[in-house]
Specification:
A hairpin with a 2-residue loop joins strand 18 and strand 19 (490-496). The protein is α+β, with helices and mostly antiparallel strands. Helix content is 28%, strand content 21%. It has 17 helices and 27 strands. The relative contact order is 0.08. A six-stranded mixed beta sheet has the order 22-23-27-26-24-25. It has a five-stranded antiparallel beta sheet with strand order 13-12-11-8-14, with no helix packed on it.
């Protein structure tokens, strides 16, 4: 009990203490034996779901686009406000957001006190409500956080796992070299993709989920993090924890988090990557997926009544389901499985708000060029919002900078905007001195994303900026500024998406699309090179009408195998050389598709067969596979 007893004499204290103890035990007995109405999972029923505002329209929209998808509704029979309370106020730090997040995302009670490894802070009720509200994610981009994560051999293949691991630096190659407990090197004669697929099959879980979860926990760089490097300290040399099971810490102690994870690995004898991944997969299955937490969403928000309810979560990061769902969707799309019979489990709550919970502060997160208003000199840029903070420097009328947040509340006599100076310094300036100006455009280039789930941030750098969206591999954007900021050992470029959203992306994930790619008409086909875009065609044929395979007219961006082009009332089928899976891009999924062609596992359409002949020698064989690999690596063009 947190209430303090006044000093009323020994006898009174004794009686009150007994009463307090009895009440405490009684309350806790009630809490531990709380019974909720029985939960059910049922096939989607439009009449029954109508009771829950906003669901029907969203579900029917995705079902119309993907008629083979199997939507199940998880009727939790839990009160929305009770769940929100349990995910926030009942236990602070149950949900975390990145350190440096805007104030409306940060818990007003805990403030900016570092949590977990030190890179996180406690999340506010408003941002938890936003991420917890399923209606925000029932769309084509993020619905995969509701995917059933049980193993499905029909849609989950080794090629699919390879598609994920191919984008993880340390997982390249056909063998796994690791450090043993004696410090020597040893080799496993399997690829990481093989190990992950076997582990998932044995555990009965999705290999795509397992691969994506490892990517989430260990990153996608050239080396894994401390818990899976095998060389963190002499005490834990040769031990591996790829899924970070038991890697918990607190108060910003990153070393404690890693050590706890490695201690768990050492206690369980996880002495090489294969042992770690296979044992971790079984724990993931037995402790989460097989007890009701069988979606990414349910692994964060524990609302299935087969477990402890609320307390049992895989991660505290409230954005983990969203970011992992991007990787899952991309994998299915690349393999051509996006329209297969995939099962999704979507929860509903009682007494939900009549409209979906909006992202708090999103209207104040901006990417704007701005300057100091006329008539003002020596305006202080401070290290935080408020006059009590250190002045980093002063700037005067006409000096330009980037504004990434607009102040909404008074601190002292001012509202404060967050800005980025030309050298990348981030600071705060009183809103009254700031005025927006037109975009400063230093280039106008069409570029494509070469990374998976790349963060689009409101400003340059990973520190002190907010993720506005996640961009998919192959997505086409317009770059309007490059090489201005060098932060976190990376250059950051400003881009605009097709929907008009502006933000910054690390330039290493952007690849310039050539504007001189060739194309030619051969009988009933238009044959083109990998980067050929709508603009290239229309530069020569201004009246050309270009459509996707589903009949949707496109007016900008890349074209792909299976598109049609109508010129002077004659229609041609598009063949993009190298685009052997008809997704409009030439990447690793195309050479995987060609391998399957050669091995007889996948029969190409007539157009895909022409596209697969990347070296134009009249047949599809290993030389086409090699040509596409060289093209992706930048050492060889694919030409008509």
């Amino acid at each position: 009990m947190k209430n303090r007893l006044k000093i009323l004499g020994k006898r009174t204290i004794g009686i009150l203490t007994i009463l307090t103890l009895v009440i405490y035990i009684f309350i806790n007995l009630i809490n531990t034996k709380t019974v909720y109405a029985a939960q059910t999972r049922e096939a989607y029923d439009s009449a029954k779901i109508s009771k829950y505002p906003g669901y029907k329209e969203l579900i029917e929209k995705v079902k119309a686009a993907h008629p083979n998808w199997n939507i199940k509704i998880h009727y939790t029979n839990l009160d929305w406000n009770k769940v929100l309370y349990n995910e926030t106020v009942e236990t602070h730090t149950r949900s975390l957001v990145p350190k440096g997040s805007i104030s409306s995302w940060v818990c007003s009670t805990c403030g900016n006190k570092p949590q977990d490894s030190g890179s996180w802070v406690c999340a506010s009720e408003a941002i938890v409500a936003y991420t917890m509200d399923p209606r925000n994610w029932i769309n084509d981009d993020y619905i995969f956080q509701f995917e059933n994560l049980a193993f499905n051999e029909t849609t989950q293949t080794l090629s699919g796992v390879q598609a994920i691991t191919s984008r993880i630096g340390y997982m390249s190659g056909n063998t796994v070299t690791y450090t043993t407990t004696t410090g020597s090197k040893a080799t496993i004669n399997k690829s990481y993709a093989q190990i992950i697929y076997e582990a998932a099959q044995e555990a009965g879980i999705s290999p795509y989920h397992l691969a994506s979860r490892i990517r989430q926990e260990q990153g996608a760089g050239a080396t894994a993090s401390g818990t899976a490097s095998g060389t963190y300290t002499a005490e834990y040399i040769g031990y591996y924890n790829f899924l970070n099971i038991g890697a918990t810490g607190g108060n910003g102690d990153k070393d404690l988090t890693v050590r706890n994870g490695l201690k768990n690995a050492k206690d369980k004898g996880w002495t090489n990557p294969e042992i770690s991944i296979k044992a971790g997969a079984k724990e993931l299955a037995s402790k989460y997926i097989n007890i009701g937490q069988d979606t990414l969403y349910l692994q964060k928000y524990d609302v299935d009544d087969r477990g402890s309810m609320f307390y049992h979560q895989y991660q505290q990061n409230i954005f983990a389901p969203k970011s992992e769902s991007v990787t899952m969707r991309e994998t299915y799309s690349k393999l051509g499985f996006l329209n297969n019979a995939i099962e999704f489990i979507i929860p509903v709550y009682e007494n939900m708000p009549s409209t979906r919970c909006l992202e708090p502060g999103s209207e104040h997160i901006v990417t704007q060029n701005a300057q100091i208003k006329a008539g003002h000199t020596n305006v202080c840029v401070r290290e935080n919002a408020g006059t009590s903070y250190k002045a980093l420097r002063t700037i005067s009328a006409g000096e330009k900078f980037l504004r990434i947040e607009i102040g909404t509340t008074f601190i002292g006599n001012n509202k404060w905007d967050k800005i980025v100076l030309s050298d990348g310094t981030k600071g705060y300036i009183a809103t009254d001195y700031v005025e927006q100006i037109n975009d400063i455009i230093t280039c106008n280039e069409t570029v494509k994303l070469t990374g998976s789930g790349v963060s689009l941030r409101n400003g340059p750098g990973t520190s002190g900026t907010i993720v506005k969206d996640y961009l998919a591999m192959g997505q086409i954007v317009t770059r309007i500024e490059k090489n201005k900021y060098y932060l976190n050992d990376l250059y950051w470029d400003r881009v605009i998406t097709s929907s008009g959203t502006q933000g910054y992306v690390a330039s290493k994930y952007l690849e310039l699309m050539a504007t001189n790619d060739k194309f030619k008409i051969e009988e009933s086909n238009l044959i083109c090179e990998p980067y050929t875009a709508v603009e290239n065609i229309q530069a020569q044929y201004s009246n050309a009408v270009i459509k996707k395979a589903n009949g949707e007219v496109v007016t900008t961006g890349q074209i792909g195998t299976g598109y049609t082009i109508t010129i002077d009332n004659k229609t041609y089928s598009v063949v993009k050389l190298g685009d052997s899976n008809s997704d409009g891009k030439v990447d690793s999924f195309d050479y995987i598709r060609i391998m399957n062609y050669i091995m007889g596992k996948k029969k190409p359409s007539d157009l895909e067969k022409i596209a697969a002949d990347a070296n134009k020698d009249g047949k599809v064989d290993s030389f086409d596979y090699i040509r596409i690999m060289n093209y992706i690596m930048g050492s060889k063009r694919i030409e008509i």
